[in-house]
Amino acid sequence: MHTPLIKKLILAVLGMFAFAFALVPLYDVFCDITGLNGKIDLVVAEQSDRVDESRVVDVSFTTHAKSSAPFSVEAQQYSVIVQPGKLSEVEFIARNLSDSARIMQAIPSVSPGQAAKYLHKLACFCFDQQSLQANQTMKFTLRFYVDTELPTDVQELTLSYTLYDVTDSMATSNLKQKNTPDQLVSLAEDVSLRGHENG
Amino acid sequence: MSIAAEEQKASHEHSHGAPSGLKRWLYTTNHKDIGSLYLLFSLLMFLTGGAMAMVIRAELFQPGMQLVDPHFFNQMTTVHGLVMVFGAVMPAFTGLANWMIPMMVGAPDMALPRMNNWSFWILPFAFAILLMSLFMEGGGPAFGWTFYAPLSTTYSNDNTALFVFAVHIMGISSIMGAINVIVTIVNMRAPGMTWMKLPLFVWTWLITAFLLIAVMPVLAGAVTMVLTDKYFGTSFFDAAGGGDPVMFQHIFWFFGHPEVYIMILPAFGIISTIVPTFSRKKLFGYASMVYATSSIALLSFVVWAHHMFTTGMPLAGELFFMYATMLISVPTGVKVFNWVATMWRGAISFEIPMMFAIAFIVLFTLGGFSGLMLAITPADFQYHDTYFVVAHFHYVLVTGAVFSIMAAAYYWLPKWTGNMYNETLAQWHFWMSLVSVNVLFFPMHFVGLAGMPRRIPDYALQFADFNAIISVGGFVFGLSQLLFVAVVFKCIRGGESVPNKVWDGAEGLEWEVASPAPYHTFSKPPKVD
């Protein structure tokens, strides 16, 4: 007498457990569509065909290494003033501060968040994981432009990079990829990053 | 022949009485035994969590670091929250559901008695695991009961696994309890008990059970992600691997907001039962109560991000969550209005359950108002993570949920034990609690507005006087609860015998069985017209 109802309820419980995990890709899709959260597409953009010469935008750069990440990355210019649509280049000097070879992943973020989808990068060291030998110094070039569609109330934006040391997790995630290829969103993103050229 | 007499005869006929000793409690599948176990366990956890609150208030009695180090202080705030939410309030409501729902709908027992036994007996293990971690190297969870990533992933110690498993077990227990409640209410109502004749406590619990089924698995998912992020190299909440720590908050509060209604809807049911009894009037607006409860439950799924206004949401999101949150005050207002309208021109008498119920109505509403203030997005930026929030949720949870549980305990204790509680002690308990709880939580509004942050073991000197007052209120409130323990145990051991219908204005099937309620009730379903 109770069995059909119990089955439905257990199904609902399992469904909600699955839903909790489904929220992870849903969240990414939602952020992607709306451009919320300052999340930036890690893809190479096309060059803009028009330049808005009527206004300028101040773009500042900041980098922040996670406490366990032995890297420093510094922009050669603190900020640049650009016209929307016009391509700009900024050089970054990256250093491995440790005495061993490490792999670095830089995660970009734009503030204010709603400007994130208007910043397009043609080349960025964040597109790929970067191997740095012990104490090695490397120069990277960021090539970017600000979209002409950028809302006019945004006159300044900040591109911030958080630097992570992914040496250890690369080892484990490669291992995992073999066993469960479709397990995790993060791994899927790893795959999509591959093949893009370095800045 | 009255139903009570029939019951007594019935229980003589199948005289397979309960086994004695420890085994009776370990193996029991009787809803009344399991209800008692839940309630006693909840009382024990209430005192445990209360002891931790005493440590917190002792440390905050004076500015500067006095008694405990900050890491232990963080463990106290965290485990206090976890124990009170999952160990005290939720099991108390489940205990009341076990005791009362079968008697209220005229069923002989819960639908799934063996699962009922399991859902209780895994709980002590969950809390043993959680509390044990406090004594291990590195200490217990110290990241707040909300276990925000990366505090619970990157920055927590290895005992986090124990926290995760404890929460898993608590979740499984709640889900089993919820399934049991739903199946009992849907399938085992006495003939003639149509949906709109269900007592409101049963209605509110039915809706609560659906909330539990919807969100406890999401909590299980969230702790599982924390577990795999911490130990198995996934990056759900780690930006380095493509995850996002803000997503943790979305998933957590998708569980967390319905959770707060899980802790208050059964309270609404209790108040809707007690107020008509002592007003000697029918409940005003029964149908609107049912619809209000349902709409609160539905709305609770679309307001979660009001806990996260300061994470940098876009304006549209802030506006949506602000208005959706404010919308909840409409059905809640309907409820408060109905309780007051029930009392209006009633022949009110002020027995202890009614006193707690009236205190609930006033003080819960006060907590609701501070909730409305918090819902105003621009104002929330000032209130966020201050003692104003602490004041708000303690008004709705202590003078709300806990007071309703006290009211329920006083209301049905004579039915459960057959004895009236000691009126003098109960009066002392009520008045001491009422005064001290306000001394404890009301000044928190002011220190919060003045900027005192929550979860910090020290504070700026200008908050010293208020914190001393708050701590005194806390100690008195804590001690007053020992009076409650005394009342309960005195009442179990003896006291003035009560008739079957303990309160002259009471209505419902539970008052038609003998006092104390026999081990088996409604073996034959009663007829409801």
Automatic annotation (TrEMBL), chain A:
Compartments, as annotated in UniProt: Cell inner membrane
InterPro entries, A to Z: CtaG/Cox11_dom_sf, Cyt_c_oxidase_assmbl_CtaG
Topology within the bilayer: Single-pass type II membrane protein
GO molecular function, one term: copper ion binding
Pfam families noted in UniProt: CtaG_Cox11
Keyword Transmembrane helix annotated: yes
Chief localisation class: membrane
Gene3D superfamilies assigned to the protein according to its UniProt record, in alphabetical order: Ctag/Cox11 (2.60.370.10)
A single GO cellular-component term on record: plasma membrane
Coiled-coil ranges per UniProt: none
Top-level taxon: Bacteria
Main function: Exerts its effect at some terminal stage of cytochrome c oxidase synthesis, probably by being involved in the insertion of the copper B into subunit I.
UniProt protein name: Cytochrome c oxidase assembly protein CtaG
Biological source species: Pseudoalteromonas luteoviolacea NCIMB 1942
From TrEMBL, chain B:
Topology class, membrane: Multi-pass membrane protein
Keyword Membrane appears in the UniProt entry: yes
Coiled coil: none
Its EC number(s): 7.1.1.9
Residue span(s) of domain Cytochrome oxidase subunit I profile: 25-529
GO molecular function, one term: cytochrome-c oxidase activity
Name of the molecule in the record: Cytochrome c oxidase subunit 1
Organism: Pseudoalteromonas luteoviolacea NCIMB 1942
